[in-house]
Structure formats: C-alpha cells, structure tokens
Amino acid sequence: MTRQEIDALMARLGLNVPEKERDDLAAASKYAEDMARRVGKPRPAGAEPLNTPAFPSTAVGG
Amino acid sequence: MVPDYLTVAEAAKLIATKALSPVELTRSRLDRIEQLDGRLHSFIRVLADEAQAAARVAESEIVAGGYRGALHGIPIGLKDIYETAGIPTTGHSKVMQDHVPATDAFSVKKLKSAGAVVMGKLATHEFALGGPSFDLPWPPARNPWDTTRFTGGSSSGTGAAVPAGLVLGGTGSDTGGSIRGPSAYCGLAGIKPTYGLISRAGILPLAFSLDHAGPMCWTVEDCAIMLQAMAGHDPADPASADLPIPDYRKALTGDVKGLRIGLIRHFYTTDHEANAATRDAIDAAAGKFAEMGAEVSEITLSPLAEWAACGVLIMMTEAYAIHEANLRSRFTDFGENFRDRMALAGLFTASDYVQATRRRRELVDELDRAMARLDLVMTSAAPTEAPKIDAVGKFTLMEKPSMTMPFNVTGTPAMSVCCGYTEAGLPLSFQIVGNRFHDATVLRAADAYERAMPWRRRRPSL
What we know:
The complex is a heterodimer.
Chain A: H1 3-13, H2 19-39
Helix pairs in contact in A: 1-2
Chain B: H1 8-16, H2 22-40, E1 43-46, H3 48-63, E2 75-79, H4 106-113, E3 117-122, H5 156-161, E4 169-174, H6 180-186, E5 189-192, E6 212-217, H7 220-230, E7 260-263, H8 266-271, H9 276-291, E8 295-298, H10 304-329, H11 336-345, H12 350-371, E9 376-380, H13 396-399, H14 406-409, E10 414-421, E11 427-434, H15 439-452
Parallel strand pairs in B: 2-3, 2-4, 7-8, 7-9
Antiparallel strand pairs in B: 1-3, 4-6, 5-6, 5-10, 9-11, 10-11
Helix pairs in contact in B: 2-3, 7-15, 10-11, 10-12
C-alpha cells in the first residue's frame, strides 16, 4: 500500500495514527498483503470455515 | 534459611512434612522480589500484604491437618491479564490501568482453591500483544539470564520471575506463542494446553478462537501440578470442554518407549532458519528421545508461513474487533507497538478473515492426518536464543513466520522444554506437541527428557 492509501484507510477506520507512524504502516503493509494472499488461495465453494458449529451426537438423535 | 531456588514439587514436599513454613517461604520470595525485581521488572504489582495473609491461612490450615495438595502454600504470580477481585488488572496498558474486577478469573479461583499464594500481578506485553514496549506505564520485563535481552512475550513477567526464583510458578496465556516464547527465551517449562482445557473466563482476551491459558514453571512436573489445578470445565467459557481431567503428575512415568514422535525439521531448517546452536540442540533432543526408546521419524507439513499467515490474520482481526472502540477514541493511549500492530490489522477485510478460517480447517485436518499415526510431534520453539531487547521490531511477528503459531491454529497441546544453553549461557528450547486432550502425553515425554538431561541444574546468576 502507498502512504496515500494508508492515509485513506486510516481515515475510513477512524484511527488517529500519528504522522510519523504512517510510513511504518505503509512499509509493513506488504506483510499483511502477503498473509491475505496466502489464506485466499482458490478452494472449492463448499470448503467450510473452521467456525462451523459441530453439534454433539445426542443433539441430533445419533 | 529458605533456599533461593525451589521447585513447586520440592517446596510442596517440605511443606507437606512441615519442614517448611508457607509464611517463611512467602517472606523469602518477597525479600527476593525486593532485592532483584528492580532489575527484572517482572512484577507490575506486588501483593505483599495479601500474600502474607494467604500464607498465614495456608499455614494454619496445614498445621490443623487440612493440607490440600501440592500447591498449598506455594507462591505464584499471575500475568496481569488474569482478573483478580478488588485488585487492578491492567493488561499492562494505560487504557485499563484503573480496571478493578469484581471477581477472580475462573482459573485464579481454582488456583486459590488449591491453596496457592498469589504474590502479585506480572508484566505482560500490552494486552498480550504489544511488546516489548518502553512507552507504557510500566517498563518491559528483562531476561534474568542477561538483562539486556528480551524475555519473549507476551507472558514476559512470568518468563522472568520463575527462573529468577521470585515465584515458584506462574500463569501465562498463549494466542500465538505467548507461553512457549518466553519459556524458550528464559529457559523454563511452559505448556499451552489443549484449547478448551483451561477456562478463558476472566482473562482479558486477545483473540477468542486462539487464546489459551496455561502454566509456566521451572520444571515439567511443576507445570503438571499447576495444570491440574487450573484445568476443568467452566460453563462461563463457551469453548470450555466438559471432560474428565486425568492425573497429570501420575502420567510422568519417565518412560517414552514406543512413543511415536514426528520431527518437523523443515520448520527450523528451511521455513524459518534457526541458528546453528538451536538446530543442533533440537536435533540432539530428538536423538535423546530415540535413545530413550521413542520412535522418531521426520515428517513434512505445509510451510510454516502458511500456518503463520492463517494464525496471525485471525489473531489480529479478532483483536482489532475487541479493541476497535478504544482504538478509535484513544488511539495514542495505547503503546506504539500495540496500536500500530492493530492499525495494520485494519488492512484485512472481512473476506480475508473468512478465508483464514477456511484455511484453518485445511491446516487442522492436515495436522490431524499426520498425527493419526503419531503420539507427538516436535520442532523448534524459537529460532535463536533471546535477542537483545532493543532489537525486536514493531512488526517482527509478521516479518518471519512464528514457530509456535501452528499449534494455536490447531488447538493442540504444545510445550516448550529447555534443551541446553549457548556458549554465552542463554537457554535453548524445543517444542513438543500432542493430540488434542492428550496433554498428559506431552507432559510425560517432556518430563522424561528433562529428567534425563542436566539442564534444570543451572539457574541465572543474579
């Protein structure tokens, strides 16, 4: 992300980030982008997240 | 004269036979805190009066024949995210420095019920994430092996206080390695138990789906003693498991014959290259397990960066949601490390979070498949010995993949165990990991290794 993009994002989030720290965020944004890219690899539409509830067998009569 | 260093098990034996008074033991630890903590900064708040009162109660109960067990009369410390009734619980942050809870955390109640004497509240990274920081109301804890070094975090105060003999055990929390990291850098034993084994209720959250509470002690046996007291079902924690709790200390048989251990070498030789001392120490520990009769084989999992991306993304977005209101209204009341790490979390989208939870299922399934034919896996807990405290960057967590985060993603029990020292005398460590709710197997293997090696004989020179 560019410094200008960081400024716009912080404004949208409502975070009052001190001026001197904004360049640090712009420089570090590549790490966040890399992580998002890694987890966002294509997968089947039916690939479920982990937070899907698993009900105990007694709850479904099993 | 009370020795400078005692383990929980050693002190318990003396207390049970009335050879050691809990009051004398507590007084000796308070003196030691007074003498040493000006250099270590492991305590945010020392509860001298409360501790002495609790020690007197313990002593009178024991004299009257009411000995409760191995924690009765034992001085411990609590990471300052564990809520304590009537005593500030700050998260080491200006933002919560006036927060005084009405009740104890569930695990604190259990520790007190076992007779433990709470000596005070221990330093942490701000809200278990932002550290080491020099712009908070309290200074960061220092590594007792070399006070110019980092303790690791976020359970930094516990990491410093236990090896220094200021307390005999302490609590930590672990969302991405906050028990195992300081345990590795400060040379103690620390277990992140299975997710759901210890209640999170009353512990300031960092990330709901990754947070684990656990003990940090000098020995594995001491961790087993503390885990026994802390574990148990709590309806107030939606993730709390309602399962019988085994006798963890009884599981410490010293025998690892036939245990199948998978060694994940690529985590520390390729994915995040550890230094030679660390690599050699872990390889030697694996060799020791084989020598003791375990079946050790090398296994390969997805690259460490995949696990770290999944865990860090979930951790940061959940933490952002928790602190969002304060971040908007009082951003600069947080320390720079915490607030900027949180600001970076603002880059993640809702879709990124969901994708991370989908990735999490894949990774959990992957480890479960690998462990279907194994009892344990082992790998590194940290890539090097403790670095200099001023060499830890604001975004270190994101620059290099964490070696501990994979097992927060999976919720499996994982423990740091000391496996030697560098030439400069700094501790080295490995990590040993079990199947979910097989915490006793982790403790058993770690204890057997620890007893076979000389590493517990050395303490910091203070």
